Automatic annotation (TrEMBL):
This is Carboxypeptidase. Pfam families: Peptidase_S10. It comes from the Bacteria. Residues 1-18 form the signal peptide. The keyword GTP-binding does not apply. Keywords: Signal.
Amino acid sequence: MMKSIFLSMVATALFVCAGWAQFPNGNQISSDNDKKGASSDLRFDPDATVVTHHTATINGKVIPYKAVAGTMPVWDEDGKTIAGLFFVYYERTDIKDKSTRPITISFNGGPGSASVWMHIGYTGPVLLNIDDEGYPVQPYGFKENPYSILDVTDIVYVDPVNTGYSRITRKDVPKEKFFGINADIKYLAGWINTFVTRYNRWASPKFLIGESYGTTRVSGLALELQDNYWMYLNGVIQVSPTDLGIERGSVTASALRLPYYAATAWYHKKLPADLLQKDLIEVLPEVENFTLNELLPAMHRGGFLESGVKQSLAAKMARYSGLSEKTILQNNLSISTNLFWKELLRDEGFTVGRLDSRYKGIDKRVAGESPDFNAELTAWLHAFTPPINMYLRNQLNYKTDLTYNMFGNVWPWDNKNNQTGENLRKAMAINPYLHLLVQSGYYDGACDYFNAKYNMWQMDPSGKLKDRMFWEGYRSGHMMYLRKEDLRTSNESLRSFISKAVRAASQPAKY
């Protein structure tokens, strides 16, 4: 999820420096923290796993696999354990030669979010119980995921510190070692190095996938792994990417939001009749061209823009956004996302969702300039929390009384010196094998699709890397895979991307 979502929720989430894990033999395993007389009697082992064996039918073929669920340490510069990261590792068991078998390491965002979302919503072998458009249904539960990418790649789902079951092991460990853009990248790169070594995956083609803030994470990790661990990736996958530290400025950022507004207004049938008669994919190029060629240069003229031009722009913005010319002019052509989410369906008494604007919310008052809550995120927490707890305990046999933190306390978070977009460019320039795939939902208002395109345009000004960069759009929101049709096509796209990148690696890595 985006780094700014539900700050109040994240800030009040449970922060525990020690916990305990009970495994199938019933033993409680003490950590060093307990031996030092910590005040809590909850015990947490930062290095313990449980292995189970399963099968899944994916694309009509039965795939046998093992699941490793548990923790693996994070060490400081002196080799002392400072945290244990919870992970779930799925390994196909009918392939003996791992040298050509890809491995994909998966992160979600927040930055205080667990890996649950893509784990049981997208790429993993099980899928939570939701309807075909992604809305919660009861009874809660999970089922086989027939679209999982486990047929073509092994997968590791990683929970950063204080998310999921991951915890710091000692109270004297500074939070600054974990909670910041560059600290996060540094310790996770070390952890990945340990994992790849411990599970003997150095020969395997390697991929990183991140969603939302996870895209910031994996973009930075691509260079960190190359520079400090000499680990070269085959692919980075960005699902609903952030701005990756690529500067926009307030005027550019405001203008670039219009195509997303148009997509949402089209979905809710708030555009003029001639636009509604067209398919969304036909409408958006028209809006994108207007945004780049007319709106963006005009807005940079600010208060010196001629009144007639300003009025004409407001009329076109109204046509494409579903808002009134009056509202647009009152806001000097710059419509904040909060105002848009509140205003679009105001006359109907609804707000629209932030992360997925297909969702509707109901506020206490119709008046105001922002929604009371994020309708889509409350629905997703409703849908995901029971099945992940049920699945880890009952199917993967990982038994603990710790709280599985859907969102954990990682604040204050150091956002300074975000160079992750540039770092990914450097990693791709250095490594001819490295490919990039970007997936976006048209109705995502937090990490909108047009800004994802803008990232790619600005990340590679030379244009020499664009043959290894791919973008795809889907008719849903931030977690586009929650819509059943997009779950199928987006997983197929991942499968194709991974296979293509692996095939490319059969050639010498040179320009």
